[in-house]
Amino acid sequence: GGWGAAPGGYGAPGGAPQGYPGGPAPGQPMPNYPGAPAGGPAMPGYGGGVPSNPQAPAIPVNKGYRGSIKDFPGADPLKDVEVLRKAMKGFGTDENAIIELLGSRSNKQRVALIAAYKTTYGKDLIRDLKSELSKDFEDLVIAMLQTPTQFDASELREAIKVGMDWCDLT
After folding, report:
1. Could you tell me the pTM of the whole model?
2. Residue ranges of region Disordered (predicted)?
3. What angle do CA 76, 81, 83 make, to 5 degrees?
C-alpha cells in the first residue's frame, strides 16, 4: 500500500474508481470537451516528418529602402577619376580627397570609377590605390569600389582563408 491507496497499492481507498473529482470515470470522455482529432493524412501523428506545406514566417520587407547614400547629383566619373589621380600623384597621398570623393558617391557611382579610370589613364584603379594606401584604409577604399556581390565574395574568401589558417594551427 501507500498513503491513501486501497489494499494492494492501487486505486483510491475503499476501491472507488480513480479520476478527477466530479469528472467521469477513467476511460470515459470528458463532458463538454472536444474530442481528439481523427488521425489520417490531413493530421499526421507525432514523428510524421517534414510538414507537407511549410510556410516561411512572414517578415515585413521594406522594398523602398535602398541605403542612406543616394546618387550624387551631377557626378561625372571622368572628373571623379581626375580627383583620385591627383590625390595619388606626387609625394604622399591626399587621403582626405579620397574620403571626400568616395564618401559622397553611391555604390553605383563608385563602381563606375574603375572603368572610367582605365579608359582615361589606361591603368587599374584598384592596383594604383593599393600601391598608395595601406592597412585598414586600403581595405575600406577597395571595399567601397566593389559591387555588393564582389564584396560578399571577397569577404567569404577571406573568412575561408582565415578558417583554413586556423585549422592549420590546431
Report:
1. 0.57
2. 1-38
3. 95
What end-to-end distance do the CA atoms of the chain give, in Å? 62
Contact 114, 125 (CB under 8 A): yes
Residue type, 125: L
φ, ψ at 43 (rounded to 5°): -135, 80
User: Residue 126: what residue type?
Assistant: I
Q: Which residues lie across from 43 on neighbouring strands?
A: 40
SS3 sequence of the chain: CCCCCCCCCCCCHHHCCCCCCCCCCCCCCCCCCCCCCCCECCECCCCCCCCCCCCCCCCCCCCCCCCCCCCCCCCCHHHHHHHHHHHHCCCCCCHHHHHHHHHCCCHHHHHHHHHHHHHHHCCCHHHHHHHHCCHHHHHHHHHHCCCHHHHHHHHHHHHHHHHHHHHHHC
pLDDT of 146 higher than 60: yes
Provide the pLDDT for residue 152: 94
C-alpha cell at 109: 557611382
Instruction: Return the pLDDT at 75.
Output: 93
**What is the residue type of 146?**
Q
The owner of cell 470515459 is: 28
- Under 8 Å between Cβ of 108 and 147: no
